[in-house]
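Researcher: Sequence recovery benchmark, item below. Answer with residues only.
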């Protein structure tokens, strides 16, 4: 049975930009996927989507980006 889970990740703006932007985000998504598999023993993890959390854009704290990442797991 396939379930959907989400992870919330906060990245400082300067690290996001210095480390390559979206390629850095993808590397972090891959690490989260591996961690989920090791910690919870999922047989299959599939990256489904990511989005920038609205609150990270609307607040005065522009020093961080907050992403919500969605995975399908079995």
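Model:
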């Amino acid at each position: 049975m396939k379930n959907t889970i989400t992870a919330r990740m906060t990245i400082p703006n300067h690290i996001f930009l210095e480390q390559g932007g979206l390629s850095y985000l993808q590397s972090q998504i891959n690490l989260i996927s591996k961690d989920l598999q090791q910690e919870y023993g999922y047989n299959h993890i599939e990256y489904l989507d990511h989005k920038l959390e609205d609150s990270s854009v609307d607040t005065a704290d522009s020093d961080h980006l907050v992403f919500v990442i969605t995975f399908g797991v079995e």
